[in-house]
């Protein structure tokens, strides 16, 4: 058995941002257009007028201030409200592969490794741009990596589930060095015309290198334990699968994009995640006093404040539970890894932390790490 370690991390950040104010201007213009088009039905009481969105609500309900996106213009066009991502030919790199490759190269540089030294690539994300061939195999080829590659999807928990799979393979010796890559184009699965959720998501890609601790070239984190759990729920759902795309079902259906009952998610996920982290730490003999940092999934600031307080038994000190969602919004599986990549350099040997992601299905995954 080998000791697995996280030896590098990387974040690809798109060049375009949308602030809450820009988003709200576009949404409200769309709502005005919709209300104009449906004026008769609204006047007769057959439907309700669409209400306006507000930046103040977005910040107070979520903590989000802006998001990065792959295409701003299409999202902010009130007659479109959807990114324009041009279709590519089959011999050009896919957009998810390109984003993932950038994050992977950053992670490899930090680990002091080259693509050829990787023998397992996992592309772990909420949505994949095609059914097959796997995005991970495309990235494997672009990197010049050997071994094998596969895609997996556990929605927002994909990163920690991917790290568990990679760490287990490194531990057993079946692979020497793996990359877990999370490219998320949430903007293409979000209904930007739905006031209740139009502000939630952004685009990004992250990557981590998982390898034997004895092979590490520089500063690294030992993976001291991983734990994954799932429980079925319909409160976060996207029905867009190939069976739903038969010719008789091609109409514009709301359930073909991200759907959630946000309030229920909020209430049901919080106790599940807090108990999961506490149980995992208990099993490893870790106490709250041992924890230097919590890198949580980035969906909602109130949610993270609650989990941080529950796990530590007190209000976290500034920096103990870093949030990045004010800048990136919810980036699904990538959120906890962005927080880890941007807020872990200052940790000293022996310092301990927990990476935890949670989300649809429901799912929760935690990774206990210790700075070597
Ligand atoms: N502007 C102004 N007012 C608004 C707006 C708006 N945009 N939206 C809603 N309101 C109003 C409502 O009308 C309501 O008014 P009233 O009380 O008069 O009826 C009021 O605000 C309160 O509404 P809510 O109760 O819905 O507001 P909350 O305070 O609960 O906040 C949130 C809503 C932010 C959605 C919150 O419930 C939340 O964050 N929940 C958890 C979300 C979460 O964690 N989801 C996880 C999903 S991510 C995941 O698992 C991955 C899925 C795959 C990703 C795919 C990419 C797309």
Topology of helices and strands:
Layout: E1 4-12, E2 16-19, H1 20-37, H2 39-44, H3 55-62, E3 66-69, H4 72-76, H5 95-111, E4 120-124, H6 135-143, E5 148-152, H7 158-172, E6 177-185, E7 203-212, E8 221-230, E9 236-237, E10 259-260, H8 262-284, E11 291-296, H9 301-312, H10 325-328, H11 335-342, E12 352-359, E13 363-371
Parallel strand pairs: 4-5, 4-6, 11-12
Antiparallel strand pairs: 1-7, 1-8, 2-3, 6-7, 8-13, 9-10, 12-13
Helix pairs in contact: 5-6, 8-9
Bound molecules: octanoyl-coenzyme A.
Task: Describe what you observe in this structure.
It is a single chain. The protein is of the alpha+beta class. Helices cover 34% and strands 22% of the residues. The chain has a domain at 222-371: Peroxisomal Thiolase, Chain A, domain 1, CATH 3.40.47. The strands form 3 sheets. Strands 5-4-6-7-1-8-13-12-11 form a 9-stranded mixed β-sheet, sandwiched between helices. A hairpin with a 3-residue loop joins strand 12 and strand 13. The structure holds octanoyl-coenzyme A. The site of octanoyl-coenzyme A has 28 residues, from helix 3 and helix 8.
Number of helical runs?
A: 11
Main beta sheet, described?
9 strands, mixed
Oligomer: single chain
- How much helicity do the residues have? 25-40%
By CATH, the architecture of one domain is named 3-Layer(aba) Sandwich
Uncertain stretches: none
Q: β content, as a range?
A: 15-25%
Q: Could you report the average pLDDT, rounded to the nearest whole number?
A: 95
Q: Which overall shape is indicated by the principal axes computed on the Cα atoms?
A: globular
The strand line-up of the biggest sheet is 5-4-6-7-1-8-13-12-11
Distance between the termini: 18 Å
Radius of gyration: 21 Å
- What structural class do the secondary elements suggest? alpha+beta
**CATH class assignment of one domain:** Alpha Beta
> What ligands does this structure carry?
octanoyl-coenzyme A
Assign the CATH superfamily of one domain: Thiolase/Chalcone synthase
Could you name the CATH topology of one domain?
A: Peroxisomal Thiolase, Chain A, domain 1
Q: Spell the H/E element sequence.
A: EEHHHEHHEHEHEEEEEHEHHHEE
Q: How many β-strands, per DSSP?
A: 13
């Amino acid at each position: 058995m080998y000791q697995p370690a996280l030896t590098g991390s990387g974040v690809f950040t798109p060049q375009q941002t949308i602030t809450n104010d820009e988003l709200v201007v576009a949404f409200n213009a769309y709502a005005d257009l919709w209300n104009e088009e449906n004026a008769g039905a609204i006047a007769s009481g057959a439907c309700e007028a669409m209400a306006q969105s507000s930046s103040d609500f977005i910040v107070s309900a979520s903590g989000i201030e802006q998001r990065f996106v792959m295409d701003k213009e299409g999202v902010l066009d009130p007659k479109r409200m959807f990114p324009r991502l041009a279709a590519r030919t089959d011999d050009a790199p896919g957009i998810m592969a390109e984003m993932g490759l950038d994050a992977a190269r950053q992670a490899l540089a930090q680990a002091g490794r080259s693509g050829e030294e990787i023998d397992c690539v996992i592309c772990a994300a909420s949505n994949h741009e095609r059914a097959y061939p796997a995005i991970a195999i495309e990235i494997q080829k672009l990197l010049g990596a050997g071994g094998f590659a596969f895609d997996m999807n556990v929605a927002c928990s994909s990163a920690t589930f991917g790290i568990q799979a990679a760490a287990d393979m490194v531990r057993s010796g079946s692979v020497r060095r793996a990359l877990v890559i999370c490219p998320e184009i949430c903007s293409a699965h979000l209904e930007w015309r739905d006031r209740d959720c139009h502000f939630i998501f952004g685009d990004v890609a992250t990557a981590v290198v998982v390898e034997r601790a004895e092979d590490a070239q520089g500063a690294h984190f030992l993976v001291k334990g991983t734990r994954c759990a799932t429980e079925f729920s319909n409160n976060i759902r996207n029905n867009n699968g190939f069976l739903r795309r038969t010719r008789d079902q091609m109409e514009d259906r709301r359930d073909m994009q991200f759907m959630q009952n946000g309030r229920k998610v909020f209430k049901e996920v919080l106790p599940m995640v807090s108990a999961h982290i506490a149980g995992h730490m208990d099993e490893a003999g870790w106490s709250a006093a041992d924890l230097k940092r919590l890198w949580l999934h980035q969906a909602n600031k109130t949610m993270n404040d609650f989990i941080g307080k529950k796990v530590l038994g007190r209000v976290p000190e500034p920096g103990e539970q870093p949030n990045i969602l004010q800048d990136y919004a919810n980036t699904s599986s990538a959120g906890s890894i962005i927080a880890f990549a941007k807020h872990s350099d200052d940790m000293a040997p022996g310092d301990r932390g927990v990476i935890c992601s949670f989300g649809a299905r429901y799912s929760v995954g935690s990774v206990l790490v210790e700075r070597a």
